[in-house]
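Q: Second attempt. The first request was missing the SMILES, so the protein and calcium ion are both included now.
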Amino acid sequence: MNMDPEFGLFGSPDSDAFGSGLFDGAVPAAEPAPGGLWVHADGGWYDVHALDTDGDGMVDTGTLTDADGTAVFTDLDADGVADVYHRVRENGTFETWRFAAGRWRLMDSGDIA
Ligand SMILES: [Ca+2]
Ligand SMILES: [Ca+2]
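A: Got both inputs this time. The predicted holo structure:
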């Protein structure tokens, strides 16, 4: 594991990845269901109502916005569960998270410019 202080969010709860408001108003499911793009978060699974951006007939990319910026979820292996999460914040910074072994892990962060 990379022990660089920048990666200090390893092992943090999902709420640190998403903030408090991203899924406001959405009701989590106990588990992913067929046909959506599901994101694991504290409290359950959320369908981000993804679009088929590459035209292969499977939804693959879902975007949410909140007061803090934009969140883009991508399903890399077409299993209906989001694997990558890009966060672009209003303050000009980004984060890249990867979902593996049942939790979100911060892979990269920095300034957009
Ligand atoms: Ca697709
Ligand atoms: Ca997936």
